[in-house]
Design a protein that fits this description.
Largest sheet: 12 strands, mixed
Number of strands: 21
Helix content: 25-40%
Strand content: 15-25%
């Protein structure tokens, strides 16, 4: 390990003590964060509109400031994008993270330099810190971390792009000390050209870790194997030891990654939304994450109309997450549903989206039900699924069914058995689904598409994530049309 690598390793490990202390004093840190946000926000247009200067407590804050989603907050964001100063964050916001997420429209999330440094970059560093703490023999600083970032563009004087690309821009050439690919390659706009360039540049480098959204990294790894002629990633990068992922549930992707890696690798999850860096898993392979209370974000948790601060949450309960932060968002609902697994310290899981469910026939199908059924059907039939989406199909008889569109790494031994297991698991786990299957729903259908189909659809539609549950068939129709047009693997 180089001298610089040893220094950075010690710096990262030194952070672990601070993380532990913050976790023990999470409520105290949250109220200190709220005080800081109120002081900085009281003189903005938003602060004057809602009287932030007079807020003296969390209860005052709840009474004075309404809850927002993107639609109701968009007017403030539009003013910031037009260059207006002191709208809801101090000064002028010059960066916006463009995120489509699982919705059908682009969202522009303001990103101040203060939020970038105190939230996102600190969170990324702490992911490494916690990993090193639990893996003292790690060789993470003996090579490069491959980060698959998006692109940016100028809109007036503002820089707009994926969060990952904005971070690459902000870090500049210093990021190249331990990161790959080069900045020149990272900024290539066309994704297929970028993948080819990354493979040419990085195939002979010592890559020790990967980071990013699972679906896009899988597309890159497939391209790597196709261009090198190797059968597994470990044959190309034998020292790769870690994949740091977030943005979507990793459960449906785990088996596909195991297949393509061809050897042991650790998976570490973080909850890093465009709006803010929220939580980090302390153990590899776990979807239970430690809440980070001192990243400049103040959290609230909603169950319907009832909203509580951190100290009011209960273990085992599910909440919609609200965030106020240094990027100019106030009481903003991210759309994620979290469940607390511990309150001493505060640990949580992301269990779904507030709007990602299907209730076309009264079946109340949640994303967790779908993931569990898919994994069960794969286990029984020896299949490995890489990507999927499902939607209701309505029939003239007033009945209907769910159509699944699935892309496999390894197809099931029997598609009929796969469908039976899918249906049986859903009926067993979801009483509403079972009741509707006995009355107004037929058994689900499964359409298998060739490998690479979903990636091609993502490229065509500018989407980094694949929505898995949709209220109508538009998306799945588009994916099936993409399959018929032919797929570049």
């Amino acid at each position: 390990m180089s001298v610089l690598g040893k220094v950075w390793r010690e710096v990262m490990l030194a952070r672990c003590g601070r993380i532990e202390r913050s976790a023990r004093k999470a409520v105290e840190r949250q109220y200190a964060t709220l005080d800081s946000l109120l002081r900085r926000g009281r003189y903005t247009s938003f602060g004057r509109e809602f009287g932030l200067r007079s807020v003296r407590s969390a209860e005052d804050f709840m009474r004075r400031v309404p809850r927002f989603d993107y639609d109701s907050y968009e007017s403030y964001i539009d003013r910031m994008r037009q260059g207006e100063r002191n709208v809801s964050a101090e000064g002028r916001v010059r960066m916006f993270a463009r995120s489509s997420g699982t919705s059908s429209r682009s969202k522009y999330i303001p990103l101040t330099r203060r939020a970038l440094l105190r939230n996102h970059l600190r969170g990324m560093a702490d992911v490494v810190s916690l990993y090193l703490l639990s893996h003292p023999a790690s060789r993470l600083f003996d090579g490069l971390m491959l980060t698959l970032s998006g692109t940016t563009r100028r809109e007036g004087e503002a820089l707009v792009g994926d969060l990952s690309a904005l971070i690459v821009q902000a870090v500049g050439d210093w990021g190249g000390l331990f990161r790959a690919p080069s900045r020149r390659v990272a900024e290539i706009e066309n994704f297929d050209q970028k993948c080819d360039a990354i493979c040419r540049e990085c195939a002979t480098q010592r890559i020790v870790a990967l980071a990013g959204v699972p679906s896009w990294n899988m597309a890159l790894l497939r391209r790597l194997l196709a261009l090198t002629g190797r059968s597994s990633v470990k044959e190309v990068w034998p020292d790769v030891e870690l994949f740091m992922h977030g943005g979507v549930s990793f459960r449906p992707y785990r088996d596909a990654f195991d297949c393509v890696m061809g050897g042991p690798i650790e998976y570490l999850e973080s909850y890093n939304a465009s709006e803010g860096f929220v939580a980090i898993a302390e153990r590899c392979g776990s979807d239970e994450m430690l809440l980070m209370p001192d990243y400049g974000c103040y959290y609230e948790f909603a169950q319907g109309p009832t909203v509580v601060p951190l100290e009011g949450v209960r273990r085992g309960e599910e909440y919609a997450l609200l965030m106020s932060s240094e990027n100019g968002l106030w009481r903003y609902e991210l759309g994620d549903v979290v469940r607390f697994t511990s309150v001493d310290p505060y640990r949580l899981k992301v269990v779904g989206r507030t709007k990602q469910y299907i209730n076309a026939f009264g079946e109340e199908l949640m994303i967790g039900n779908a993931e569990e059924a898919l994994l069960r059907a794969c286990m029984v039939t020896g299949a490995v699924a890489e990507e999927y989406t499902l939607a209701p199909i309505f029939l003239p008889s007033s009945k209907g069914y769910h159509r699944w569109v699935v892309e496999f790494v390894r197809e099931p031994d029997s598609l009929a058995t796969f469908v039976e297991e899918l249906d049986a698991t859903l009926r067993e786990r979801n009483s509403d689904y079972d009741a509707k299957r006995a009355s107004v729903m037929y058994r689900a259908s499964v359409e298998v598409v060739p490998r690479g189909t979903f990636h091609r659809w993502q490229i065509s539609n500018g989407r980094r994530k694949v929505p898995h549950l949709m209220a109508d068939a538009k998306l799945s129709d588009e994916v099936l049309a993409t399959a018929r047009e032919g797929v570049k693997i």
